[in-house]
Amino acid sequence: MAALIEVAELVKDFRSFERAEGLKGALKNLFLRQYKTIRAVDHICFEIPAGGMVGYIGPNGAGKSTTIKMLTGILMPTSGKILSNGFRPFEERLRYTRTIGVVFGQRTQLWWDIAVIESFRLLKNIYGVADSDYQARMRRFDEVLEIGRYLHTPVRKLSLGERMRCDVAAALLHNPPILFLDEPTIGLDIVAKDHIRAFLKQVNREYGATVLLTTHDLADIEELCRRLMVIDHGRLLYDGPLEELKRRLWREKAVKFDLKDREQAQRLEALPLEGVTAERTGELTCRLRFPRELHSTAEIIRRVVTTVEVLDIAIEEQSIEEVVKQIYSGNLLREPVR
Predict the structure, then answer these.
(1) What is the per-residue pLDDT for 338?
(2) What percent of the chain lies above the pLDDT cut of 70?
(3) Strand pairing partners for 115?
């Protein structure tokens, strides 16, 4: 499938003025200034096909938002190539922005002091949306995001969750083929997050919208994205399926056993198995953790059920939170994983 978004050897450097301390330092800065260059994005490459829904994660300061700003045409790259929907974002920004939708969780694209409906009408005219399309989309937004109750309220009086629902709707008003989402669920409650996730899945499924999502809420990734890109210190460390990343970094497996009585629990804890640790999670419940390279899950279950009386078994999958915590700790993925 042809790529809708192509990024090759993308670099973004920022030049920063180093201020000297104290009055003498301030006087010195008048005549002699020292600068340092900070590389926010370091030769990253990726492609996203039409209809793709990709998660883009990394610690604070990793380069996620800088990448998004270059992809949307807000920032000019220091070097490298971006081709998005046939446009070079920064050079062709005016025409390009008509083909994309953008949501920045920390900022709104709606006008602060006027009613939400007036912002939508302004956007309708800016993007040249036909009346029939506008009405149909507004009905759909209300069905899924329930924004009808906010339409006549000034944006400044909306809660964060209400504003984010309206911002997502505003980004999709002109039915763009590409949607860039930078922390779209930040600060929202569970209900608001569920509404936005459901809507994004529907837009991707029904309209084939291509979505690039940055987030610190890993539930967003698990709910929405099968492909994941991990960036740190400006470098792309991983680009591939979420399940593959889990497999590569999942050092431990765990199986939880519900046992018949206390005697069985004690026998399970005393079971001699190399590298296996037993953890009591309840009076009659015990979890066994073991290195995946030493034992298979089937082997552990077979040894247990032939030794003790088991009422129930649960194989526990490692959560994405645990995997990403390992990445963010700096102990894993020091070099790119392909």
Answers:
(1) 46
(2) 90
(3) 154
Residue 162's identity, in one-letter code, is: E
pLDDT digit string, tens, across residues 172-189:
999 999 999 988 887 777
Question: How does pLDDT run across 247-256, given as a tens digit for each residue?
Answer: 777 677 889 9
Global pTM exceeds 0.70? yes
| 252: Cα separation from own chain's centroid | 24
Among 24-28, 83-87, 210-214, which stretch is predicted with the lowest mean pLDDT? Answer: 24-28
Domain annotation for the chain: domains and CATH numbers: 3-247 (3.40.50.300), 251-317 (3.30.70.2860)
Q: Write the burial class of residue 90 (CB in 10 Å: 0-12 exposed, 13-18 middle, 19+ buried).
A: middle
